[in-house]
Amino acid sequence: MKRLFVTGTDTGAGKTFVTAALARRARELGRKVFAYKPIETGCERVGGHLVGPDQEIISTAAGGWQTGPQRGVYQFVNAVAPLVASELEHSPIDLNLIAKVANSETSVDLLIVEGAGGWRVPITTTADMAVLARQLETKVVVVARAGLGTINHSLLTVEAVERDGCSVAAVVLSRRPDEDASFAQSNRDQIHRRWPGPVLVFDTNTRVLDPLLG
Predict the structure, then answer these.
(1) How far apart are CA 39 and CA 6, in angstroms?
(2) What does the alpha-carbon distance between residue 203 and residue 17 come to, in Å, rounded to a whole number?
(3) Which pLDDT tens digit goes with each residue over 137-161?
(4) Which residue out of 15, 32, 37, 100 is catalytically annotated?
(5) CA angle, 7 as apex, 56 and 161 as ends, to 5°?
(6) 82 in Cβ contact with 94 (< 8 Å)
(7) Looking at domain 2-212, what is its CATH homologous superfamily?
(8) Which of the 8 DSSP states describes residue 71?
(9) pLDDT at 194 (0 to 100)
(10) Positions of the chain with pLDDT under 50
(11) Residue 10 and residue 130: Cα distance in Å, rounded?
């Protein structure tokens, strides 16, 4: 089973967009995908239950087969860091439970775990997203904005991931429709000049993500 952990350079960088696209492309290639966002904040109550909109998007992209905790273990109302939300809502986060659910489906070809926020976002008083990614034994996909500021944010995140002993599978620059394609490509080139791994510019062509699925 291939295992990827999707983190972002910051909140709103495009993690869910890229995670869903990876799931759809993997399915096009005939893979069974488990798209899993174990912790989500800023959730809404629907029919008496908290629903994570990002988890719904990526579960649908993976084929809609996931049920129960496979559609997210922790949902919080407050749109804050997981540790802060768990303390406010008196619901401690258990990383071992998250890992148990991640490993609960052995028939899949690809596990994609979407983190909450960036690499240093706290989950518990002693663990951040880095700890979770290491526990899940995943390679890391760093999702970044394609525009101004992304060179610095991307390289700093890559440095942090590698310093924490994790392998970066790729940096993916998530380009929005109103962002200049040539500027995004220039940013890609500058990041690649400093870091030798794959740097992909993604907008809507899911084939761009194929190097992550090989």
Answers:
(1) 13
(2) 9
(3) 999 999 999 999 999 999 999 999 9
(4) 37
(5) 160
(6) no
(7) P-loop containing nucleotide triphosphate hydrolases (3.40.50.300)
(8) G
(9) 98
(10) none
(11) 14
Q: Which two tokens stand for residue 56?
A: 């719904």
Q: Which backbone phi and psi does 118 adopt, to 5 degrees?
A: -95, -175
Model's pTM, two decimal places? 0.97
d(CA 106, CA 121): 29
Neighbours of 27 (CB within 10 A): 17
37 is annotated as an active-site residue: yes
The DSSP bridge pattern shows strands 44-46 and 49-51 to be: antiparallel
DSSP secondary structure, 140-155, as one string: EEEEEESSTTHHHHHH
Compute the distance between CA of residue 36 and CA of residue 23 in angstroms, rounded to an integer: 10
Taking the C-alpha atoms of residue 54 and residue 41, their distance in angstroms, rounded to an integer, is: 10
Residue 134, pLDDT score: 98
Domain boundaries, the chain: 2-212
- pLDDT of amino acid 96: 98
The residues, any chain, with a CB within 8 Å of residue 152's CB and separated by 6 or more, are: none
User: Taking the mean position of all CA atoms in its chain, how far away is CA 52?
Assistant: 14
pLDDT score at 48: 86
